[in-house]
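Q: What would this chain look like folded?
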Amino acid sequence: MVPIYLGTYTDGASRGIYRLTLDPANAHLSEPVLVAEAVNPSFLAWHPSQPVLYAVSETDTVGPAKSGAVMAFRIDGSGGLTRINQEPSGGGGACYVSVNGAGTYAFVANYGAGSVAALPLREDGGVKPASAVVQHTGSGPHTTRQTHAHAHSIRAMPGSPFVLAADLGADQLFVYRFDESTGTLQPHQPPSAAASPGAGPRHFAAHPSGDAVFLINELTSTITSYAWDGAAGTLHKRGEVSTLPEGFTGENTTAEVTVHPTGRFVYGSNRGNDSIAAFRVGADRTLTRIGVYPTGGKTPRHFAIDPSGAFLIAANQESDTIALFRIDTETGALADTGARARVPSPVYVGMRPNR
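A: My prediction, written as C-alpha coordinates:
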Protein backbone atom coordinates (compact mmCIF):
# COMPACT_ATOMS: atom_id res chain seq x y z
CA MET A 1 0.00 0.00 0.00
CA VAL A 2 1.20 3.50 -0.87
CA PRO A 3 0.28 6.24 1.62
CA ILE A 4 -0.98 9.46 0.04
CA TYR A 5 -1.41 12.75 1.89
CA LEU A 6 -3.88 15.40 0.78
CA GLY A 7 -3.64 19.14 1.33
CA THR A 8 -6.91 21.09 1.29
CA TYR A 9 -8.55 24.48 1.65
CA THR A 10 -10.52 24.68 4.89
CA ASP A 11 -12.98 27.48 4.10
CA GLY A 12 -15.66 24.80 3.57
CA ALA A 13 -16.13 21.30 4.95
CA SER A 14 -12.44 20.34 5.12
CA ARG A 15 -10.63 20.36 8.45
CA GLY A 16 -7.00 19.97 7.39
CA ILE A 17 -4.66 17.24 6.06
CA TYR A 18 -6.12 13.88 5.01
CA ARG A 19 -4.53 10.52 4.29
CA LEU A 20 -5.53 7.64 2.05
CA THR A 21 -3.74 4.67 0.52
CA LEU A 22 -3.26 3.43 -3.01
CA ASP A 23 -3.47 -0.32 -3.61
CA PRO A 24 -1.43 -0.67 -6.82
CA ALA A 25 -2.35 -4.32 -7.37
CA ASN A 26 -6.05 -3.52 -7.57
CA ALA A 27 -5.89 0.16 -8.69
CA HIS A 28 -7.92 1.10 -5.61
CA LEU A 29 -8.01 4.20 -3.40
CA SER A 30 -9.05 3.88 0.25
CA GLU A 31 -11.42 6.22 2.06
CA PRO A 32 -9.54 9.39 3.16
CA VAL A 33 -9.20 10.04 6.89
CA LEU A 34 -8.33 13.28 8.66
CA VAL A 35 -4.81 13.06 10.15
CA ALA A 36 -4.15 16.67 11.20
CA GLU A 37 -6.31 19.72 11.74
CA ALA A 38 -4.81 22.81 10.12
CA VAL A 39 -5.91 26.00 8.37
CA ASN A 40 -5.51 25.90 4.58
CA PRO A 41 -2.68 23.33 4.39
CA SER A 42 -2.55 23.82 0.62
CA PHE A 43 0.95 22.46 -0.14
CA LEU A 44 3.05 19.72 1.48
CA ALA A 45 6.66 18.54 1.45
CA TRP A 46 8.68 15.74 3.04
CA HIS A 47 11.91 15.67 5.01
CA PRO A 48 14.44 13.59 3.01
CA SER A 49 15.52 11.35 5.90
CA GLN A 50 13.14 11.80 8.84
CA PRO A 51 9.43 10.90 9.12
CA VAL A 52 8.43 14.57 9.03
CA LEU A 53 5.86 16.27 6.82
CA TYR A 54 5.76 20.02 6.19
CA ALA A 55 2.74 22.08 5.19
CA VAL A 56 2.05 25.71 4.49
CA SER A 57 -0.85 27.49 6.14
CA GLU A 58 -2.06 29.68 3.28
CA THR A 59 -3.22 32.64 5.35
CA ASP A 60 -2.04 36.14 6.24
CA THR A 61 -2.94 36.08 9.92
CA VAL A 62 0.17 34.68 11.66
CA GLY A 63 2.10 36.97 13.99
CA PRO A 64 2.03 40.77 14.31
CA ALA A 65 2.58 41.27 10.57
CA LYS A 66 0.60 39.66 7.77
CA SER A 67 2.12 36.23 7.25
CA GLY A 68 1.31 32.66 6.48
CA ALA A 69 3.01 29.78 8.27
CA VAL A 70 5.14 26.70 7.72
CA MET A 71 4.04 23.76 9.88
CA ALA A 72 6.01 20.62 10.74
CA PHE A 73 4.35 17.28 11.60
CA ARG A 74 5.89 13.99 12.73
CA ILE A 75 4.53 10.93 10.92
CA ASP A 76 3.83 8.05 13.30
CA GLY A 77 3.94 4.34 12.53
CA SER A 78 0.31 4.24 11.40
CA GLY A 79 0.65 7.29 9.14
CA GLY A 80 -0.91 9.75 11.58
CA LEU A 81 0.48 13.24 12.09
CA THR A 82 1.51 15.02 15.29
CA ARG A 83 2.32 18.71 15.04
CA ILE A 84 5.90 19.56 16.03
CA ASN A 85 5.72 23.33 15.62
CA GLN A 86 5.17 26.14 13.15
CA GLU A 87 6.84 29.41 12.21
CA PRO A 88 5.74 32.47 10.18
CA SER A 89 6.47 32.13 6.47
CA GLY A 90 7.73 35.69 6.07
CA GLY A 91 4.75 36.98 4.10
CA GLY A 92 1.05 36.59 3.42
CA GLY A 93 -0.45 33.81 1.35
CA ALA A 94 2.17 31.06 1.79
CA CYS A 95 1.39 28.72 -1.11
CA TYR A 96 4.40 26.43 -1.63
CA VAL A 97 6.97 24.63 0.52
CA SER A 98 9.95 22.43 -0.35
CA VAL A 99 12.93 20.97 1.52
CA ASN A 100 16.54 20.84 0.34
CA GLY A 101 18.27 17.53 -0.24
CA ALA A 102 20.29 17.76 2.96
CA GLY A 103 17.16 18.21 5.06
CA THR A 104 18.53 21.37 6.66
CA TYR A 105 16.22 24.05 5.22
CA ALA A 106 12.66 24.53 4.08
CA PHE A 107 11.87 27.07 1.38
CA VAL A 108 8.52 28.81 1.07
CA ALA A 109 6.85 31.02 -1.54
CA ASN A 110 4.40 33.67 -0.34
CA TYR A 111 1.97 34.42 -3.17
CA GLY A 112 0.20 37.37 -1.56
CA ALA A 113 3.35 39.11 -0.40
CA GLY A 114 5.39 38.25 -3.48
CA SER A 115 8.28 37.02 -1.33
CA VAL A 116 10.31 33.86 -0.77
CA ALA A 117 11.96 32.66 2.42
CA ALA A 118 14.41 30.09 3.79
CA LEU A 119 13.69 28.50 7.18
CA PRO A 120 16.36 26.40 8.95
CA LEU A 121 15.22 22.99 10.23
CA ARG A 122 15.88 21.67 13.72
CA GLU A 123 17.41 18.28 14.44
CA ASP A 124 13.94 16.93 15.27
CA GLY A 125 12.60 18.22 11.95
CA GLY A 126 10.86 21.25 13.40
CA VAL A 127 11.15 24.64 11.73
CA LYS A 128 13.14 27.60 13.01
CA PRO A 129 12.45 31.29 12.25
CA ALA A 130 13.31 32.38 8.72
CA SER A 131 17.00 32.99 8.04
CA ALA A 132 16.20 34.90 4.85
CA VAL A 133 13.17 36.64 3.36
CA VAL A 134 13.53 38.09 -0.14
CA GLN A 135 10.95 40.45 -1.59
CA HIS A 136 10.34 40.06 -5.32
CA THR A 137 9.57 43.05 -7.51
CA GLY A 138 8.15 43.31 -10.99
CA SER A 139 4.89 43.16 -12.89
CA GLY A 140 3.47 41.90 -16.18
CA PRO A 141 0.95 42.85 -18.84
CA HIS A 142 -2.04 41.02 -17.32
CA THR A 143 -4.11 43.86 -15.89
CA THR A 144 -5.49 42.02 -12.85
CA ARG A 145 -3.11 39.13 -12.11
CA GLN A 146 0.26 40.80 -12.67
CA THR A 147 0.06 44.22 -11.01
CA HIS A 148 2.89 43.20 -8.66
CA ALA A 149 5.04 40.20 -7.76
CA HIS A 150 3.38 36.90 -6.79
CA ALA A 151 5.95 34.27 -5.80
CA HIS A 152 4.39 30.88 -6.55
CA SER A 153 7.06 28.19 -6.08
CA ILE A 154 10.63 27.70 -4.87
CA ARG A 155 12.97 24.69 -4.88
CA ALA A 156 16.63 23.92 -4.32
CA MET A 157 18.19 22.43 -7.45
CA PRO A 158 19.71 18.97 -6.84
CA GLY A 159 23.50 18.83 -6.87
CA SER A 160 23.77 22.60 -7.17
CA PRO A 161 24.17 25.59 -4.81
CA PHE A 162 21.25 27.33 -6.51
CA VAL A 163 17.58 27.78 -5.66
CA LEU A 164 14.97 28.65 -8.29
CA ALA A 165 11.74 30.56 -7.65
CA ALA A 166 8.88 31.13 -10.10
CA ASP A 167 6.96 34.40 -9.86
CA LEU A 168 3.57 34.68 -11.57
CA GLY A 169 3.30 38.45 -11.24
CA ALA A 170 6.81 39.32 -12.36
CA ASP A 171 6.98 36.87 -15.30
CA GLN A 172 10.36 35.62 -14.04
CA LEU A 173 12.07 32.43 -12.96
CA PHE A 174 14.49 33.79 -10.36
CA VAL A 175 17.89 32.23 -9.61
CA TYR A 176 19.39 32.50 -6.11
CA ARG A 177 22.72 31.29 -4.78
CA PHE A 178 22.02 29.65 -1.43
CA ASP A 179 24.58 29.73 1.38
CA GLU A 180 23.74 26.81 3.66
CA SER A 181 26.08 28.03 6.40
CA THR A 182 24.21 31.32 6.81
CA GLY A 183 20.82 30.48 5.30
CA THR A 184 20.93 33.42 2.90
CA LEU A 185 19.53 33.72 -0.63
CA GLN A 186 21.62 35.95 -2.89
CA PRO A 187 20.49 36.94 -6.41
CA HIS A 188 22.67 35.25 -9.01
CA GLN A 189 23.97 36.88 -12.20
CA PRO A 190 21.92 36.89 -14.30
CA PRO A 191 19.27 37.04 -11.54
CA SER A 192 16.47 35.42 -13.54
CA ALA A 193 15.19 33.99 -16.80
CA ALA A 194 12.29 35.92 -18.28
CA ALA A 195 9.12 34.06 -19.18
CA SER A 196 7.03 35.05 -22.19
CA PRO A 197 5.19 38.34 -21.42
CA GLY A 198 1.95 37.62 -19.58
CA ALA A 199 2.74 33.91 -19.15
CA GLY A 200 2.41 33.90 -15.36
CA PRO A 201 5.05 31.33 -14.21
CA ARG A 202 3.57 29.06 -11.54
CA HIS A 203 5.43 25.80 -10.81
CA PHE A 204 8.49 24.06 -12.27
CA ALA A 205 10.04 20.61 -12.24
CA ALA A 206 13.61 19.45 -12.88
CA HIS A 207 14.53 16.61 -15.21
CA PRO A 208 16.13 13.67 -13.33
CA SER A 209 19.32 14.16 -15.36
CA GLY A 210 19.70 17.66 -13.88
CA ASP A 211 20.10 19.34 -17.26
CA ALA A 212 16.62 20.79 -17.80
CA VAL A 213 13.76 22.60 -16.06
CA PHE A 214 10.11 22.59 -17.14
CA LEU A 215 8.08 25.66 -16.15
CA ILE A 216 4.28 25.68 -16.31
CA ASN A 217 2.71 29.07 -17.02
CA GLU A 218 -0.66 29.65 -15.40
CA LEU A 219 -2.01 32.51 -17.52
CA THR A 220 -1.10 31.31 -21.02
CA SER A 221 -1.55 27.54 -20.45
CA THR A 222 1.93 26.67 -21.65
CA ILE A 223 5.00 24.74 -20.50
CA THR A 224 8.43 26.23 -21.20
CA SER A 225 11.52 24.02 -21.45
CA TYR A 226 14.83 25.44 -20.23
CA ALA A 227 18.31 24.01 -20.43
CA TRP A 228 19.79 24.20 -16.92
CA ASP A 229 23.48 24.48 -16.13
CA GLY A 230 23.75 23.61 -12.45
CA ALA A 231 27.41 24.64 -12.19
CA ALA A 232 26.90 28.08 -13.74
CA GLY A 233 23.38 28.65 -12.47
CA THR A 234 22.02 29.59 -15.89
CA LEU A 235 18.79 28.89 -17.76
CA HIS A 236 18.34 28.93 -21.54
CA LYS A 237 14.93 28.61 -23.17
CA ARG A 238 14.58 25.58 -25.44
CA GLY A 239 10.91 25.64 -26.39
CA GLU A 240 7.31 26.25 -25.33
CA VAL A 241 4.17 24.14 -25.87
CA SER A 242 0.46 24.56 -25.16
CA THR A 243 -1.22 22.35 -22.56
CA LEU A 244 -4.61 22.69 -24.27
CA PRO A 245 -6.18 20.46 -26.92
CA GLU A 246 -6.55 21.79 -30.43
CA GLY A 247 -9.67 23.91 -30.86
CA PHE A 248 -10.28 24.64 -27.15
CA THR A 249 -11.68 28.17 -26.78
CA GLY A 250 -12.83 28.36 -23.14
CA GLU A 251 -11.11 29.93 -20.14
CA ASN A 252 -8.26 27.96 -18.63
CA THR A 253 -5.42 28.28 -16.14
CA THR A 254 -2.75 25.69 -15.48
CA ALA A 255 -1.58 24.46 -12.08
CA GLU A 256 0.97 21.66 -11.63
CA VAL A 257 3.83 20.23 -13.72
CA THR A 258 5.59 16.93 -13.00
CA VAL A 259 8.29 14.87 -14.69
CA HIS A 260 7.83 11.10 -14.84
CA PRO A 261 10.46 9.22 -12.74
CA THR A 262 12.00 7.85 -15.95
CA GLY A 263 12.46 11.38 -17.33
CA ARG A 264 10.70 10.35 -20.54
CA PHE A 265 7.42 12.22 -19.98
CA VAL A 266 6.13 15.51 -18.56
CA TYR A 267 2.56 16.16 -17.36
CA GLY A 268 0.67 19.41 -16.68
CA SER A 269 -2.82 20.12 -15.31
CA ASN A 270 -5.50 22.34 -16.87
CA ARG A 271 -8.17 24.07 -14.80
CA GLY A 272 -11.06 24.97 -17.10
CA ASN A 273 -10.40 22.29 -19.66
CA ASP A 274 -10.16 20.03 -16.56
CA SER A 275 -7.52 17.72 -17.91
CA ILE A 276 -3.95 16.47 -17.69
CA ALA A 277 -1.74 17.14 -20.71
CA ALA A 278 1.00 14.58 -21.40
CA PHE A 279 4.22 15.23 -23.33
CA ARG A 280 7.19 13.21 -24.53
CA VAL A 281 10.62 14.60 -23.59
CA GLY A 282 13.04 14.83 -26.52
CA ALA A 283 16.79 14.38 -26.40
CA ASP A 284 17.09 18.17 -26.54
CA ARG A 285 14.55 18.39 -23.65
CA THR A 286 11.84 19.97 -25.82
CA LEU A 287 8.32 18.57 -25.44
CA THR A 288 6.01 16.86 -27.93
CA ARG A 289 2.37 16.35 -26.96
CA ILE A 290 1.13 12.81 -26.41
CA GLY A 291 -2.47 13.65 -25.50
CA VAL A 292 -4.81 15.60 -23.23
CA TYR A 293 -6.86 13.49 -20.78
CA PRO A 294 -9.98 14.57 -18.82
CA THR A 295 -9.64 14.17 -15.06
CA GLY A 296 -13.27 13.19 -14.52
CA GLY A 297 -13.82 16.15 -12.20
CA LYS A 298 -13.62 19.90 -11.93
CA THR A 299 -10.48 22.03 -11.45
CA PRO A 300 -7.54 19.61 -11.17
CA ARG A 301 -5.26 21.91 -9.17
CA HIS A 302 -2.58 19.37 -8.28
CA PHE A 303 -1.55 15.83 -9.14
CA ALA A 304 1.31 13.45 -8.42
CA ILE A 305 2.91 10.34 -9.88
CA ASP A 306 3.49 7.41 -7.54
CA PRO A 307 7.15 6.43 -6.97
CA SER A 308 6.86 3.38 -9.24
CA GLY A 309 5.75 5.58 -12.16
CA ALA A 310 2.68 3.41 -12.80
CA PHE A 311 -0.07 5.71 -11.54
CA LEU A 312 -1.05 9.39 -11.62
CA ILE A 313 -3.34 10.71 -8.88
CA ALA A 314 -5.21 13.99 -9.51
CA ALA A 315 -6.99 16.27 -7.02
CA ASN A 316 -10.16 17.80 -8.48
CA GLN A 317 -10.62 20.82 -6.22
CA GLU A 318 -14.13 21.91 -7.11
CA SER A 319 -15.68 18.45 -7.40
CA ASP A 320 -14.14 17.19 -4.12
CA THR A 321 -12.64 14.09 -5.72
CA ILE A 322 -9.33 12.28 -6.05
CA ALA A 323 -9.01 10.41 -9.36
CA LEU A 324 -6.64 7.57 -10.23
CA PHE A 325 -5.07 7.06 -13.68
CA ARG A 326 -2.81 4.33 -14.96
CA ILE A 327 0.29 5.46 -16.89
CA ASP A 328 1.43 3.53 -19.94
CA THR A 329 5.14 3.54 -19.17
CA GLU A 330 6.01 2.91 -22.83
CA THR A 331 3.93 5.69 -24.40
CA GLY A 332 3.18 8.05 -21.49
CA ALA A 333 -0.57 7.90 -22.20
CA LEU A 334 -3.07 8.00 -19.32
CA ALA A 335 -6.01 5.63 -18.77
CA ASP A 336 -8.73 6.44 -16.22
CA THR A 337 -9.07 3.50 -13.81
CA GLY A 338 -12.44 4.76 -12.59
CA ALA A 339 -11.20 4.71 -8.99
CA ARG A 340 -12.30 7.76 -6.98
CA ALA A 341 -12.05 9.01 -3.40
CA ARG A 342 -13.96 11.93 -1.93
CA VAL A 343 -12.45 14.69 0.22
CA PRO A 344 -13.49 18.36 0.58
CA SER A 345 -11.55 20.92 -1.50
CA PRO A 346 -8.43 18.86 -2.29
CA VAL A 347 -5.61 21.05 -3.64
CA TYR A 348 -2.51 18.91 -3.07
CA VAL A 349 -1.89 15.18 -3.46
CA GLY A 350 1.49 13.68 -2.71
CA MET A 351 3.55 10.71 -1.61
CA ARG A 352 6.91 10.57 0.10
CA PRO A 353 9.51 10.05 -2.65
CA ASN A 354 11.61 6.91 -2.78
CA ARG A 355 14.92 7.29 -0.92
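The mean pLDDT is 97.
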